[in-house]
Amino acid sequence: MNRVIFSALLSHWLRHKVQFVTLFLGLALATALWSGVQSINAQARTSYDDAAGSIGQRGYDKLVSENGVSLDDFVRLRRMGYLVSPELEGLLAVGADRVQLTGFDPLTSPPRVGMASLDEQGLFAFLSDQGLVLASPETVKTLTAFWGDDGPIVQVSAEVPIGQALTDVTTAQSLLNAEYLSALVIAPDQPFGLPPITDLDGYAVIPAQGTGDLAQLTDSFHLNLTAFGLLSFAVGLFIVQSAIGLAFEQRRSTFRTLRAMGIGLKRLVTLLAVELGLIALLAGLVGIVLGYGIAAALLPGVAGTLRGLYGAAVSGDLSFDPVWAISGLAMTMAGAAVAGAQALWRVVRMPILAPALPRAWAMSSARTLRLQAFAGLGLLGFSGILAIWGSGLIAGFACLASLLIGAAIVLPPITNAVLKMAGKLPRSPLGQWTVADTRQQVPALSLALMALLLALSANVGVATMVGSFRATFVGWLDQRLAAEIYVTARTPQEAEDIRRFAAPRTTAALPIWSVEATLLEQNVDIYGIIDHPTYRDNWPLLQATEDVWDEISTGQGVLVNEQFARRNGITVGNTLSVTDTWPLPVVGIYSDYGNPHGQLITALAPLESRFPNRPKLRYAYRIAPDQAGELARDIREKFNLPASAVVNQSDVKKMSLRVFDQTFLVTGALNFLTLGVASFALLTSLLTLSTMRLPQLAPVWSLGITTKALSKIESWRSLALAVFTWILSIPVGLALAWVLLSIVNVEAFGWKLPMYLFPTDWFRLGVLAVLAAAVACFWPIYRLRRLPSAQLLRVFSNER
Amino acid sequence: MNVKILLLLIGLLPSIASAQGFAGLGTEVDGFAIPERGTNFTFPQDHAAHPDFRIEWWYLTANLTDGAGRDYGVQWTLFRSASQPTGLPEDQLWMGHAAVTTEDTHYHAERLARGATGQAGISQPLNAFIDDWSLASVASGNKDLLSAIELTARGAEFAYRLNLTADGPLVAHGDQGYSIKSSSGQASYYYSQPFYAVSGTLNLPDGDIDVTGTAWLDREWSSQPLASDQSGWDWFSLNLDSGDKLMAFRLRSTSGDDYTSGTWITADGTPTAIDNGTIELSPIIQTTTHGREVPTSWSVKLPEKDLDITVEAVQPDAWMDTLFPYWEGPIRITGSHGGRGYLEMTGYN
């Protein structure tokens, strides 16, 4: 018996293959979107953790000496108890190529990228006289071709960036023919009871020039990716709801017939639940495969981002993690269960012989609309309360969630209210009918419209956030890298030699010199600068006195960064005790995105006089931009400096922007997919409605309105709804971006990203929304236009 | 007296590890020397390194108390491991472990170094060192170099400086120092100086603490890893209130065929080897530390000496979270005899 009923239920799908495909694809796409984002997110998170774990984020302090440090220095300091490790960096000439070689001691070194690929036997080879060199596959090829069988063993490590190589410090010494080391790396935790390493005579400590600042920015990116995951979940949920709700709506007559034939309600409901479970399971599995495809296609971009930011290789290959697969499936099943429960409830309550009464159903949902309006406004209010009074990251995310769900829920009541008001506008009967008919469609279309609203808002929000993020980053680069070349020498003497070498070709050499100090019980970096237009023209001041730069250059004031000012409630005009005996007025506050630490800037001379004996090793050089590359290369070669010690500003900017644009590629692609799925939901809704609405259209048609005219009305209506949703999505999207930038970011990182608006993006999105709606309504309208008159006529005999 | 260096070797040299099942008695492995029965120790030469053997250690543990009667444990270990039997300094790897165990906590540190740079090694007349850690002879005149030593080490949260004076002779284990480690015949050279009186200072985060007590030094070297079915090691050094001492160990086997052995040392330093199966070692209490279940209380029985005691860890969390992790800490003895000692357990991974 069950089999017979089941086959009767399934036969519906055989006769309505398109409906089945839309339901199945809807579920599969929602699963795909969710699991795709989840897997990228999971992979990115692991990659971040790996990258963070394998290289010290902030880098390590290094010990150098005027006369150069040697392995003897290393052993002497180790025997004194200090945890230091030798490091030698240099450019290795390999034929016409140059390879950036880093030598270190694997037994005393802090963890390094690339070492993981070395097994135990490799370690002995690494330490042996012959030596072992680790490099990327490309560099291994170069090295093997050059050395043949004579050189060290060469082994591939995919984690080492192209053009670089790692080896034991003694091997590096012989390959580079270097007597001295570049530096001794200082372990962050030194043993108990030793005098500070900074007190050692004859040595100087170079503070870590870590990637910590960048790491903060990428953390921010990662957090936002998480927010995007949340968003896609919401969109997916709406789509599943919409697909299942409509699938049940379409089969009301089948249920009615089955019930009339004496099938028990319990049995019918059970079989429907089984059917739904099966479809959800199969569609979910297909969705996971699709999601895996999406993630695999997008992941290389994410991996590229990480590689670029950390110089650490993160695999671009997606590993299959059952956790996200199961979570994707669970999400589909849960969504199907929620939607199904609602639909099944309606089946339960449906009178056995109830005729199809779409209008009555729509009327009864007026109460639902009111409820929705209350719930939605409540959620929006709650979101606002959280935005103003909430604190903590959880509150930030809760604010985000209630904003989105609230906005989605109030969409149908708002649409309804607008249509109610619009109902009075048209003079012609046809116009009035159009508006009234649209109102009737709102409940059926509402889920698809909600999905579209969320997708569009996500688009606006994420684009605004990413755009602001990029603009901020560019500003940050301009501020930090106003000069063309940055050189870090190993000794003060070398720094001076380089300065003299570069002098004839450069217009200015600006020392980059800072000291660490404790101010208001916080560690801060105090930078000493000389007076130069580089600062006057570029430094992004948020607040400043009128003569700020004159006061700075004469040592009459100090600049503080935004974080430090915010944390301590400092404003311009306050006085800050830089040291116990050195009070200075704060003359300006500057933005310093991505830096977790406090920072101060004042004139070089007075700072130097209070902190003598700090070696000057870093200089920024101003030179005509087109000559910068050449000078950087010359300095590198002449002084045998590692690539990381000579930074060409334009290279860094280019690289960084490429990395960020890659990031956009990922979020952009996800955005587009979300929009695609939302318009698919719209398509299924319209398609379903087009068959359900024949009873509404037939009377109008019988009054002489041609199907051509009707389909024109249908087209305009779909487009109008899309445009309406798009207009609403702009404030929602901007609110979303604002929450991300001003609440979530501040809670997570303590600094606020300024929000930039990109109205051209909104219009592009509007066009996309209209296109999506046009695509979605194309088929239903095409079908309407080709509708045989007989079918319209049949309405009067069948339904009435 | 430790298997982790063997584990290190097994880890470092997979080719040898794969051959270990065949590394029977008297088989020369890759050119390294193999312990032979009937070889007499020669001092002071045997206090120094034996680079023709693959593995070797200087292993000191101390039971200490402060003025208020609180118990402390101190460990100082230097391992040597050779990559090739050349005897050259550059083919040696050195690893140091140091720890201070208190009734409240456990501090430990680890150091690694290569030979040939001078960062670690054994220097004349006798100074075993790695970085600023050292176990250095301060013996005067013609006395044995190990009769008086100065011991120092330093970690992130502790340091110590101890003076040790031996008031008894060196003790050879097994058959005159030839100590068998499995029924298939794996063996090592093994002697101890278990008679140290100690005084010195522990530098801990809460301040300096003057301590006194006893200490036990083990010297052991070999070239043979464990038998292939041996998974770990429980080792005891016990100072009984009667003045007698007991060294006992159990090598755990995955096949259930555990190998137990040890040495009974009288108060005047006369050793009696204990054959396999004679001593009964059974865990009483398991403690979960660092995610591992480790037995931190044991029943030790040696019927022929009327010994029936319970040992209990002073600090159950004495986990050495090092490259090759293991448990090592001071213990208290109750039962037929009172006393204190040290317990080391490996292979509880």
TrEMBL record, chain A:
Residues 227-351, 670-787 form the ABC3 transporter permease C-terminal domain. One of its GO terms (cellular component) is plasma membrane. Its main location: membrane. It comes from Thalassococcus halodurans. Keywords: Cell membrane, Membrane, Transmembrane, Transmembrane helix. The keyword Transmembrane applies. InterPro entries: ABC3_permease_C, Membrane_comp_ABC_pdt. It is a multi-pass membrane protein. It is found in: Cell membrane. The keyword Electron transport does not apply. Coiled coil: none annotated. This is Putative ABC transport system permease protein. The chain crosses the membrane at residues 225-248, 269-302, 322-348, 369-389, 395-419, 447-469, 664-689, 719-743, 763-782. Pfam families: FtsX.
UniProtKB/TrEMBL annotation, chain B:
SUPFAM superfamilies: AttH-like (SSF159245). Gene3D superfamilies: AttH-like domain. Keywords: Hydrolase, Signal. It comes from Thalassococcus halodurans. GO terms for molecular function: hydrolase activity. Pfam families: CrtC, Lipocalin_9. InterPro entries: AttH-like_dom_sf, AttH_dom. This is Predicted secreted hydrolase. Residues 1-19 form the signal peptide. Residues 55-223 form the AttH domain. The keyword Transcription does not apply.
